[in-house]
Amino acid sequence: MIYLDNASTTRLRPEARAAMQAAAFGNPSSIHAAGRAARKLVEDARETIAESYGGDPKGLVFTSCATEADNLAVLGVAEALRARGNHVIASAVEHPAVLEACAALSRIGYEISRAPVDEDGKIDLSVLERLVTPRTILISVMTGNNEVGTLQPIEAVAEIARARKIPFHTDAAQAAGKIPFRFTADLVTLSAHKMHGPRGAGALWIRPGTPIVPRQVGGGHEFELRAGTENVEAIAGFAEAVRAAEAERSEVVPLMERLRALLEEGLRAAAPMRVNGHPTERLPHILNVTFPGVDGEAMVVALDAEGMCVSSGSACASQSLIPSHVLKAMGRGDEETRASVRFSLGRDTTEEDIGAAVAAVPKLVARLRAISPVVRP
Length: 377
Fold this sequence. Notes:
By secondary structure, the chain is α/β, with parallel strands linked by helices. Helix content is 41%, strand content 13%. It has helices spanning 14-21, 33-52, 66-80, 96-106, 125-131, 154-163, 221-224, 232-270, 296-305, 325-329, 334-338, 351-371; strands at 2-3, 60-63, 87-91, 111-115, 136-140, 168-171, 187-191, 202-206, 274-276, 286-290, 308-309, 340-344. The strands form 3 sheets. The chain has a 7-stranded mixed beta sheet with strand order 2-8-7-6-5-3-4, with helices on both faces. Strand 5, helix 6 and strand 6 (168-171) form a beta-alpha-beta unit. It starts with a strand and ends in a 6-residue tail after the last helix.
């Protein structure tokens, strides 16, 4: 199997698996020896992850996934600041976890503004500034897009938000571990399984002093912001994945960039296509392309039959037939949007994998175009 869908999830790296297997089994809330061992593991992991990105460990709240972290950020801040205002700004290309949280807020009286993006998927800072009102209580702009890879100017967004004393959230699930990254925003979402860690582990880093209320209540876990016994094994794997990703980033990222360039050049030479996303300011592991006249889902199925795993967009929206909201926001029509395919690389992607894709895709494009009801001779 040739796996080129690492933006959806990544293979668990051996170091993370070993850390999970060696994890203490006790309940970290228990005061006996087994509980204390588990608590130490959780706190050591909290310190490893937070300090890897320049943050205070006391601000890192473990969650079950990035979606939960996004929900806690958007809904938790909105509720905490409801007396101050009811306006939330999110970019038009955010992950569904952010956009659906905003939709939930709109149903109970909040005003939601979607900051538009250009044809490369990048937000316009001047438009973002004009969207801000005296009742704006949160801005959410992802670090790097999960479908097309475009990087956003989050440092500049942070300055805009800071000058107006508005909390700023960024979903960094795809970016952390793949680009030089620090906790610039007030709230930052992380995900373990996007960086060769385990599924079932995410985190929200919250800058001290940021107003937020819990969305999940019960015991006093995670600084009383996320009730529920911590997933000690997954947290151990998460911390090891972060440590290893940062340690090898200077070697792995240039390799991914080189392989992505080989893939893009090979496909351009053999099949009509359009690359979606910013040409230079983008994540190193994502290549999203449109093959005119080819149904993206059909391409995914055809490549699967050839033993190759790719996707036609966000894994969290892949069961829906609705065209990608990201490509729509970038000005693509329904036909172009449905003709898109996302290839995404990981630390274990090889040149042989890329060669196989370059060999297989053009033949499939030609075959699918020949039978497409959209394409006419």
